[in-house]
Structures are given as structure tokens and as C-alpha cells.
Structures
1.
Amino acid sequence: MADPDPHPATFDGGCDCRAVRYRMRSRPMFVHCCHCRWCQRETGSAFAINALIETDRVEVTGEVDRVDTPSCSGQGQLIARCPRCRVALWSHYAGAGTRLSFVRVGTLDDPDALPPDIHIFTSTKQPWVILPPDKPAVAEYYKSAEHWPAESLARRRALFPGR
Ligand SMILES: [Zn+2]
Ligand SMILES: [Zn+2]
């Protein structure tokens, strides 16, 4: 038996004007808190919180604009935005493509439900941000095999067979 889950297995969210709503149909595989300069610029804040989940587990009501946006890797990312209020809801990065969504946790109705599993790119963390001592933190990126739970690694293998 798995541990009892204090949060429901679905997570709803959407943009400010409510033209776009989404539902994550399960917990994400992993949650990144990214302190890189790109995320700081894109959010106008100190970090971005991204829940990594299979795109086919996200039900969307309404249409999104996928905006081609430069990224740290140089390969670009597609940011899904509400066509009306322009709030950014999730991203697809070139490496994983559109099968994997990086859902912006701040757009959930209850963003408290998905705290970060890891802090990344802490080399550019804003100095006033104090990280929780019980969560892993890495200067830049990391190997998922070293930090993801086995179940999440299995989900990723199912998503990208042959990798
Ligand atoms: Zn909107
Ligand atoms: Zn980042």
C-alpha cells in the first residue's frame, strides 16, 4: 500500500481570465523549482516552479497559443499562453518535445499542493531566497536517475521508449 496522499490525485488550474482551464489527471513525475536567470526573466520573479507531467495526462479546456520563446539551451521552448490574457500556463522544451509538459505550478488553483522536489540552477539563486534544508538543491542541472522516485522514472521510460 502506498502512503495516504494528503492531496487529491487531480490538480486544476488556469489563466487569469479563465478562457483556458486545465486538469492534471495525476500527480506530476517531479517538480522543479528553477532559479536560472531565464526563469527569473520569464516570470519577472525569483524562480519558476514547473510540474513535469505527460502531456496526455493534462486535459485542457480552451485553446492556447504556443509561443516560440528562446531558452537557456539555445534550442528554444514553446510557452503555452492564454490567447486572451497571455498568462503562461506550461512549456514544452526542445529536449523532450510536446509529449512532456512543464506546468507552471503558480497557475494551479491550489499551488500549495505541489511544492518543489528539487531546486535547480541555484548558482543564480537570488541571495535572499532561503532554501528548505530537506530538499535537494543543485548548482545547475542533475541526472534524474539520482533524484526521481522509481515510479516516476518508469513513467518517463514509458513516455520515451528507447531512450
Ligand atoms: Zn486568460
Ligand atoms: Zn530556469
2.
Amino acid sequence: MTQECEVAILGGAFSGAATALLLKRRRPETRILIIEKAMQFDRKVGESTTEVSSCFLTRILGLTNYLGHEQLLKQGLRLWFANRSDQPFDNCVEIGARYQARLPTFQVDRSKLDAHLLELAAKAGCEIWKPAKVMRCELHGVEGQSLGVQVDGAEREVRCRWVIDATGRASFLARKLGHFRQNTEHPINAVWARFTEVKDWDSYEWREKFPSYAAAARTGRSWATNHLMGEGWWCWIIPLKGGDYSAGLVYDSRIFSLPNGANLGERLHRHLCSHPVGREIFGEAKVVEHDTRAYSAMPYYAARVCGEGWAIAGDAASFIDPLYSPGLDLCAYTTSVVSDLLARSLGGEDTTERQRYYNEQFVITYRFWFETLYKDKYFYMGEADLMSAALLLDVGTYFIGLVRPIYANPEASFLSLPFEGVPGRIFAATMKFYNRRLSALAKNRIAHGATGAHNAGWRELYDGFVPDIRLHRLIRKGLLRWWKAELLNLRFLFAARPQLRPRAATSAAAAEA
Ligand SMILES: Cc1cc2nc3c(=O)[nH]c(=O)nc-3n(C[C@H](O)[C@H](O)[C@H](O)COP(=O)(O)OP(=O)(O)OC[C@H]3O[C@@H](n4cnc5c(N)ncnc54)[C@H](O)[C@@H]3O)c2cc1C
């Protein structure tokens, strides 16, 4: 059996369905086939959205009503730091917003969101094969592409003009074409699960137990993405509609190793409880059975993302790091660029220039996004003052560089990949510089056994980030905090030459405590 179509999309989750929807909107007559391996989507990661991905979901995909009724509104980021396992809960450092988030963002159950998007694609007229697995792909440029797809135990042939890879980490085309590159400079790993019986961060019991904590924030902490922070690692805590919580650990294996235990779920739970804030929240929590997962060697990218008759979108093109939740941001940009490329090509335009742009700018975007925000960040992840400086500067520049233009003109802005041109290079150079310095300051503290000195007794609750001139206050605060850390660093100038201590052992010991 041979099926003919104009566009075959491999993978029908967020990126596959979004690409199809955007293309159908531009060119309703396009014959699109979506091939999805899973019978049903499970609750995967990618649950916390940012201002950029939420703008894509609401203003571009038009999902405001759906998100409001079916998912949770997110209330910003909160970071929690401690310097010993038995530290009192209300002595731990808290950094986050005092009030409700200023722009809409969401906590999403991906099994529901992905299924909803695929349903919308079917309603828009796309043909869906599910469960169906792409096994083979031959690319012949302008002459057309052919696919071998396993459906109900038999192989079907598909012939199409364009193949779009949206297979996520499977990264089907990049691997097949030899463009897949592991990012070995960033050896991070993750373990995650969903939990029940997680304590409510905002309950009246807590108001009695921790009155200063309860009085400090006017927004609900429960619906934030709460982060527990440590040397070489961080944990996310994300509430999901219906009451379960998603919690996961991400760690840099140069600095931290996961403590032993009977199984992954138990090891993750023990680790969460090794942090005083985690212990309060997760002390009585239970891991949901069969819902624990782990990834190692997480970051990668495709050195080429399109050619005549093929293109890659979403996680099939790259993954960097889940801190700050940029995954769906990158999916929003790449699905927009790819659907635009397809609409132009199928409409008869010469797309050589757009293909060149996507191939060249994608690698620059990946490289700069990684180096400005994540390279060696895990060295200072557990230092409250350094991470607070980074958060203010990282989120401040994100609002200036991405959130402002996206809200001013969503359609056009999603077609320009981040860090474009001279302004992009200036932003990148500035951000790389402070990130390198913060990392160097942390390494110095680690070498001198002086970590965690700022991880007790303060709370910083700011009014919230907005995409306008008021950002300057938060950025100035971030700069002052960084410069203060530089001054404090001078005390090590005359100390004995530092010896790096073996940190993996230290982290594991802390988790045992
Ligand atoms: C630990 C971790 C935490 C994260 N947290 C966040 C977060 O908080 N916020 C955020 O924005 N992002 C987060 N992300 C990233 C986010 O999960 C991804 O960016 C997002 O899920 C990518 O969507 P996608 O549609 O591109 O790929 P996927 O969601 O992976 O979908 C790929 C689809 O392709 C299908 N497929 C694969 N191979 C084939 C084949 N051969 N034939 C047919 N179908 C196939 C699969 O079944 C799947 O449905 C996180 C990632 C990780 C690893």
C-alpha cells in the first residue's frame, strides 16, 4: 500500500501537531500525514511553560480557553537554598515573586496537551496514523521522499514532497543523516517521577507553623515551579491539575552523583528529602507507580536542520537543559520557522535563502543559548547569592531580548531565531561574561571549602518581571549582587593556593545525612 501526500510529519506530539496546525492555517489545502508511534501520550516532561512558550500557546495556537479550563496557571519560579540538611525550613533562602505572575504561563499535563493538539490537527484536516512507527526514510530532494512505516504489524510506503522530523529525542533524521551531535561540554542527567500526598505550600497549618514565611508572599507558592537548589544539581517541583506533583532532579555528573537506593523512585524521594524544604514538602509523599523515568547525557543538537525536502523541528533538533524551561520555547521557534518554510516552498517560492538561514542561525542559537545560560552553571547552582544574581540577569535579559518582541509582534518574532545578528552577539557576549564570572566565583568557593555561606536567613521576593522599562530595577539588583560577590572573592586572593576537592562524594554524603 502506498500513500501519497505533500507533507509527512514524523511524531505527532507538541512539535509535530503544532507544525501541522501552523501550516494548515497558512495553506489549508496542504495534504498532511502525521505519523505517531504512541497509541496514547503518557505524562512526559515539558510541563512548565515560560512567557515565550505561553505566548505561542495562547496567541499563535489560540489555546487560551483550553489552557484556562484544562491546565493550571503557573505562578512564576521560586528557588530554595540551604547549607545543611537539618536547617530549619524558615531559615532557608527563598528567591521568587511576591505577587501573581504578570504574564500568563501554565503548568501542563503533557499527555492531555499533546492529545488536544493532535485532535486539533485532525480537525484541521490532517490525516493521522497512530500507532505507527517510521522505520525507514529515503530522501531524494526535489524528486520527493519515501518512508517505510510500520502499522498494525505491516509496512506501508509513504511518498511525499517534504518530510518533517518531530520525533523528539529519537532525533530520527539527524541521526540517520549523520548530523546528530552530543553536547559533551554539558554532562547533565535527570530522574523524575510524579508524586501524590505532597504538602500544600499555602495551607493554614503552614501559616501557624511558619508565620513569617506565610506572610512574606502574596501569591500562592503551590502553583509556582519551585526549585530546590544544591551544588551540582537542582530539583523541580511542578503541580499538575488533579493534584499530583511532578518532581525531578537534574545533575551535572562532574559534580554530583545520585545516592544509592532500592529503585529510582526511592532514590529520587530520598534526594528530595535531603533538602530541608524538600523534606517538609515531600516527607509523606508517595511516588506514583510506573511513572519514574531517567535520561543521561541529555544535551545534543543537529548540525544541519533542513535541506531540500526535509526539515527538523522541536526536540528532534536539539535539547539543552530544562532549567528555566526553554524546551517548548525552542519548539515554538523551530515549528514556526519550519511551517513558514513549508508554506513558502509548497506555494512555489524558492526557499534556498530560508533554508540557509535556518541551518546557519539554528546552530548559532543553540550555541549561544547554551553558553550564555548553562555552561558550567551547575558549579554555582547551590550558591544562593550567585544564583540570585544569575536569575535576575538571565530572566531580565530574556524579557528584553525575547519576551518584549514576542508580545509586540508574535507572528513575525517567532520566525527570527534568538541571538540573531549584531544585537544577538552583543547580548551573547555580555551574558557569557557574567555567567563565566559567576561560575569562576563558585569554583573558587568550592576550592576553598567556603560554599553555602550565603544560604541561610534571607528571602528575596520581587514584584515580578514585566517586559518594559521597569526591568532595569531587577537587572541593577542582579548586577549589584554579582559585583558584591566579586568583592567578597578578593578575600581568597591571599589564601593558600586552592585544591579542588572531590565533590561527588560530598554531595552523596549530604544526601545520606
Ligand atoms: C527532564 C526534562 C525536563 C523538561 N522540562 C521542561 C519544562 O519544564 N518546560 C519545557 O518547556 N520543556 C521541558 N522539557 C523539554 C520538553 O520536554 C521538550 O522540549 C518537548 O517535550 C519536545 O516536544 P516534541 O514534540 O518536540 O518532542 P516529544 O514530545 O518528545 O514528541 C516526539 C514524538 O515523536 C514520536 N516518535 C518518536 N519516534 C517516532 C517514530 N520513529 N515514528 C513515529 N513517531 C515517533 C514519539 O512517540 C513522540 O510522541 C524538559 C525535558 C526534559 C528531558
